[in-house]
Design a protein that fits this description.
Strand 1 and strand 2 form a beta hairpin. The longest helix has 12 residues. The protein is about 30% helix and about 20% strand.
């Protein structure tokens, strides 16, 4: 999860491997939740986040979770540069 700082504006995509349902989350929110549960935090690999999901898919009812870092569709190059400058200052 610490890699999210290298990619400003990225989101953590949680998706069901059995159907097409997915939802994106802010990585900071996921890290805070992992720390709240006292199971991990910044050192958690992105792929291991899916193993911590304890609820069934709202679409198909299965538990075939996957996770990855993605950029949102509305994030353009200009916004990405702005976020990089904001982090640096």
């Amino acid at each position: 999860m610490a890699d999210h700082r290298r990619y400003p504006g990225c989101r953590l995509l949680l998706f069901c491997g059995a159907c097409t349902w997915s939802k994106s989350y802010r990585p900071e929110r996921i890290i805070a939740r992992l720390q709240e549960l006292r199971v991990s935090g910044h050192t958690t690999p992105v792929t291991d986040v899916a193993k911590r999901v304890g609820w069934n898919c709202p679409s198909c009812g299965r538990m075939r979770w996957g996770s990855q870092l993605v950029y949102p569709a509305e994030l353009d190059e200009r916004e990405a540069r702005r976020l990089v400058r904001q982090i640096r200052s």
